[in-house]
TrEMBL record:
InterPro entries in alphabetical order: AB_hydrolase_fold, Dienelactn_hydro, FrsA_esterase
Keyword Chaperone: no
Molecular function terms, GO-annotated: hydrolase activity
Enzyme class: hydrolase
Family to which this protein belongs: Belongs to the AB hydrolase superfamily.
Protein name per the record: Dienelactone hydrolase family protein
Pfam families for this protein: DLH
Residue ranges constituting the Dienelactone hydrolase domain according to the UniProt record: 20-235
Domain of life from the UniProt record: Bacteria
Annotated source species: Streptomyces ficellus
Presence of keyword Ribonucleoprotein: no
């Protein structure tokens, strides 16, 4: 474990001024980096803490913004913004690329060692970066078994890990099956973890505002999903390149 520092970063995307959270481990050396995407409500302290935790593990981490510095606690407002976004792969890619450019611009980021991890809408954006052929070491998603335009998954150049709750009505079995069929047909190195009994956003601690139906926190699976993300990074994006052995 290592100490870290943080700072906010502003950058343009989707016609807005985005406000991201950048966490950097102690030191001056170049490090692997993780682009971290939030649920549809937008960037919150939950994602900021995750970025900080990744920095403690030795990664440069950027938790990126979706809504120009706003957190959309009103479900209707969130859906009104996110549903058109999720239906527009090019728009998702532009938001992802803008954040990725910020991460790559950080002098301590090793541009050849970047992974994308996202939750919900942020996970869909991570997948679209892969479908756009971005050079990533790994893609990890939770609650984002989204499919893309036909054939574009063949451009994914890294392993893909996806986690989803078995009782998630927003990502039901038919959606999961379509996602895995897309990955398999494209020859992607993919994995799917189904967390038994979990709803949508099972990883996100309870919030003090209304949420869409089918959302619920599952503490045990939240911890398991985080460990699975960290394991994915340890395998595909080790903090040091010679850390390829199994420490267990």
């Amino acid at each position: 474990m290592t100490t870290f520092t943080t700072r906010t970063v502003e950058y343009p995307a989707d016609g807005l001024t985005m406000i991201g959270h950048l966490a950097l481990p102690a030191g001056v050396d170049r490090r692997p980096a993780v682009l971290l995407g939030p649920e549809g409500m937008g960037l919150s302290d939950v994602e900021r803490r995750r970025a900080d935790a990744l920095a403690e593990l030795g990664y440069i981490a950027l938790a990126f913004d979706l809504h120009g510095g706003r957190y959309l606690g009103d479900p209707e407002e969130m859906l009104a913004r996110c549903m058109p976004l999720l239906a527009d792969p090019d728009r998702m890619r532009s938001i992802g690329h803008a954040a990725l450019d910020v991460l790559r611009t950080e002098p301590r980021t090793d541009p050849d060692r970047i992974a994308a991890v996202g939750y919900g809408t942020g996970g869909a954006i991570a997948l679209e970066l892969g479908r756009d052929g971005v050079n990533l070491r790994a893609i990890g998603t939770v609650n984002a078994t989204t499919t893309g335009r036909p054939g574009e998954a063949a451009r994914i150049r890294c392993p893909v890990w996806a986690g989803v709750g078995s009782e998630d009505p927003i990502m039901p079995p038919a959606q999961r099956n379509a996602f895995t069929a897309e990955m398999q047909a494209a020859g992607v190195d993919w994995r799917l973890a189904v967390y038994g009994g979990a709803l949508h956003a099972f990883h996100h601690p309870p919030v003090g505002h209304p949420v869409v139906p089918g959302v619920g926190y599952h503490p045990r699976h939240a911890q398991r999903a985080w460990r699975d993300v960290v394991d994915l990074l340890a395998e595909c994006l080790p903090v040091t390149e010679d850390l390829g052995h199994d420490p267990r």
